[in-house]
Write a structure and sequence with these properties.
The strands form three sheets. Strands 3-10-9-8-7-4-5-6 form an eight-stranded mixed β-sheet, sandwiched between helices. The protein has a four-stranded antiparallel β-sheet with strand order 11-12-14-13. Among the domains are: 80 residues, Orthogonal Bundle (Arc Repressor Mutant, subunit A), CATH 1.10.10.10; 243 residues, Aspartate Aminotransferase, domain 2 (3-Layer(aba) Sandwich), CATH 3.40.640.10. The chain has 480 residues and is an alpha/beta fold. The protein has 15 helices and 14 strands. InterPro entries: Aminotransferase_I/II_large, HTH_trans_reg/aminotransferase, PyrdxlP-dep_Trfase, PyrdxlP-dep_Trfase_major, PyrdxlP-dep_Trfase_small, Tscrpt_reg_HTH_GntR, WH-like_DNA-bd_sf, WH_DNA-bd_sf.
Length: 480
Amino acid sequence: MAFPVRTFFAVKLYEKLADEIETAIRNGVFAAGERIPSVRQASERQGVSIKTVLHAYALLEGRGVVETRPQSGYFVRELVRTHAARASSPQAPAVASEVDVSRLVLSTLRSIRANDAMPLGSPYPDPSLFPWRRINQYANAIARRHASWNLMDDLPPGNPELIRQIARRYAENGVPVDPQEIVITMGATEAINLSLQAVAKPGDTVAVESPTYYAMLHAIERLGMRAIEVPTHPVEGIDLEALAQIIAREKIAACMVMPNFQNPLGFQMPDARKRQLVELLAAHDIPAIENDVYQELYYGEARPSTLKNFDTRGLVLHCASFSKSLTASYRIGWAMPGRYRAQVEKLKFLNTLTTPSVPQVAVADYLRQDGYDRHLRHVRRVYRQQARLMTAAVQRFFPEGTRTSAPQGGYVLWVELPERVDSMRLYQAALARGITIGPGYMFSTRNEFHHFIRLNYSYAWTPATETALRTLGELVAQMA
């Protein structure tokens, strides 16, 4: 894969345009909520290409200065504190806060797609490792057999054979599951949203890990709830003592966690800590929403336990999917909501009616007839090796003071940079050179991780990958 090269002139041109527009906005030339010139107008007036304007506007969107509105254009946002502002102290008391990281995440994902950039900032695994052709063959065969599919066949909870196959995999891995508890969803994201709706209401406070995967923050934001962040250890997981103190002084409606291969830290929470977490929450009758989407991507000898293993009161709402291990395009997930099962099933029906039938049956056929375990062994081997390669490259190319996580599964590396480095500035500088990263701002509502980044190592390791990491290291060194 050829590594995209950006000229110095082109980089300065779109950055200059973005800086001019931002200055005009901050000086009151364009008011909050007002539309700025269209891409074509800016191109004609400034004498630059449409591509340059698009890149400048994407940069402004990433800075949180403007926002896009479908079929309307770009509009000025209410100005927020600049990203260069110093992050709050990690020792500051946890405070529930409104959540608004979705704009930054969306801008980051758009930049990957729009600029064909090196996807070190992507949240998605490399699709080339997935047997999507084989699954598509099953789907095509099913579509030919059933010219007209009866929607009633797969109303919630979902396709019976797929549910049976999912329950069988849990049983084979030591997690006793009643198939009647499983509700099929459109990916783990829907499972998380439905679970949160089932246990909390707008205005409620939800405890989350810090840092935490931004899909959790999105769910809280979408439902009008408040997040309270709990310090999280890179090996042990969520700080149980800090969580207990928060529960003692706040009314917590739910706790959302990723005990296995947490994104972005990559840890596997020890069994003893999982048990203690379940017992602590149960003592206060607080439900736990467990995101176990990376459950199959372990580097050890056996699949890790889940919170569900230690749940005796039905308070754990377990969410997972095949998107990270088998196929992302079909978006097949599920929830095992314990005592909230009936409510989740009802919400599924009210929200999306049903999950498409053909993908459910295709995945069920693959699980029954093909070598899913063989496929998983290959993926785990690749990820484990590429985790070592990326960790070694960061240690080699980045300046002194850089530290990395030690992932036990999954495909992301959490990197702590020297404190003077601002990850948003690094994101913008890297994007100008055709590289994306996940700035630490996306993983908290409190700017706690301004000098952290997340890197994706699932994609094939190539000379271009190494070149990109060397370039990142040089940028970090300049900023530090």
